[in-house]
Design a protein that fits this description.
The protein has 8 helices and 16 strands. It is globular, with a radius of gyration of 18 Å.
Length: 304
Amino acid sequence: MSGVDLRVSFLGKELAGPVIGASGTFGFGAEYAGMIDLRKLGGVSSKGITLIPKYGNEGERLLETPSGLMNSIGLQNPGVEHFIQHELPVMERLGTSIWANLGGGSIEDYEKGAELLNDTAVDFVELNISCPNVKQGGIAYGIKAESAKEVVSRVRSVCRKPLVVKLSPQAEDICQMAVACVEAGADALSLVNTFQACAIDLEKRRPVFDNVFAGLSGPAIRPIALRMVYQVCGAVNVPVVGLGGILTGRDALEFIMAGATAVQVGTSNFMDPTACERITDEIADWMQKNGVNSLEEIRGCARV
């Protein structure tokens, strides 16, 4: 729109806009190519990939809740090498920045996965530290700051791409976690991942999900996610990408006014496949109506 500049400077690259398709909700981008103009987006974060292909969880995988969605997918994915050979070439033709969301069950898996991504067209590696540490009884790397610091440090030592660490809201202390990740070499942070939740099937008299607990996302978590983004933006001096229940342009602007450099949109894509483009347009409309020419003018303006 005339007079409105949606571009975002992020770790040395210029993004076309502040809205990025969130991992796990946007496939590898091509699935949405016929419905929206991906060139207007700030990027696409890939389906979470791991060094070794994963089939994912058995049983129920999705459950709609009031203003939210629970998922227990289990990181089903084709593996890093398959991603590089098959999905990545398609993403290169989308006309937007490429974020490779990388998970792992061990530090060695993370390291090897990051190394494989070095000589590719991936723009950013988004490190998912919400994955269970198989050597520590399944406790996620993103719970304890010392565990996160170790995995981020090890990945940083081999990763030549800009490194964005995706934080879990289950962290013992979200600000301490953010600082630890930055000290370990994170170039930027994204938050939040899903909240751990539970649902019971009354007729079967057992948990809905085989793993008992599942991840909750959607508008229900947005105020809590916004609080955590606000806190983290005050604790670190690196770019922060905010996500969690963003449904409208106004929702996205709240995160930007809290200090976020950009936002990711996830669950909304299931409700409205055009959500990322629509939210981008709604941001531009608000800016035009309120005499804001650049997002820089309002980024962090709500901080007190």
